[in-house]
Amino acid sequence: MYANVNGLKMYYEVHGEGKPLVLLHGGLMTIDMAFGALLPDLAENRQVIAAELQGHGHTADIDRRIELRDLASDVAGLLDHLDVASTDVFGFSLGGGTALQFVLDHPGRVNRAIIGSIAYSPDGFHQEIFDPAQWATSTRMPTADDFAQMHDAYVNVAPDPGHFAAFAAKLQSAAQSPTSWTPEELAAITAPVLLVYGDHDFFRLEHAVELYDLIPGAQLAVLPGTTHMGVLRRTALIHPLVEEFLG
Fold it and tell me: Cβ contacts of residue 149 below 8 Å, gap of 6+?
């Protein structure tokens, strides 16, 4: 299904019934690639609204930079389209940053938020993540198989399959200047927040703890033996965490 939001023809899926939960995937992912293994269980006792962000999957890119504030506004527009006043939200990586921005921009619409694998400032990343010279030997970066899966997932559903390389470059350019949030902004969050990271993620664990300290009442989960790309694959760990946190 599609919703016309902010000049975007935004693809979304709705599964199950009950209290709503919005799922927001990571960069260069689709709904199925990010949440395919989790979605059936999550939809057993709630209404799961899974969206594909600007330029991802079924949602065509538009002439607009990739900015978290715009992506969060798109999510708000989708909820308006669906007549959903408030929701839980679960975002990973790019989707995690979008979820955090949505919490800040639309606090009255968020019940609980699960935010996976983000930095609140650029110094949260391990140095190798922004150093192409280290990518070939990095054990934190996505593998060639990961990139192949992203490519295949894109070309299988995208309105313009040939746009993958250009969009990947656009997304990489945006990632070079990540969004930052101030301690004051983070301290103003009132919704319950669960932060989730892999212990071998893109981000320093000290940074994850700093974010945990800055958000009042936040909870923090660090998945053992887990890279950035592995976080959502640890379904046996993620699913009980999500269920317990969301109640």
Answer: 33
Phi, psi angles (nearest 5°) of residue 159? -60, -30
What is the rounded CA–CA span in Å between residue 191 and residue 86? 12
Q: How many CB atoms lie within 10 A of CB 167?
A: 20
Domain residue limits at 6: 2-246
Partner residues linked to 247 by β-bridges: none
- In total, how many domains does the chain have? 1
The model's pLDDT over 19-41, given as tens digits with 9 standing for 90+, comes to: 999 999 999 999 999 999 999 99
Max distance between CA atoms of the chain, in angstroms, equals 48
Q: Is the pTM of this model over 0.85?
A: yes
What's 190's domain CATH number? 3.40.50.1820
Report the C-alpha gap between 75 and 77 in whole angstroms.
5
Phi, psi of 131 (to 5 degrees): -120, 95
Q: Which of 67, 54, 1, 66 lies closest to 25, judged by CA?
A: 54
Provide the token pair at 21: 């939960």
User: What is the rounded CA–CA span in Å between residue 201 and residue 141?
Assistant: 9
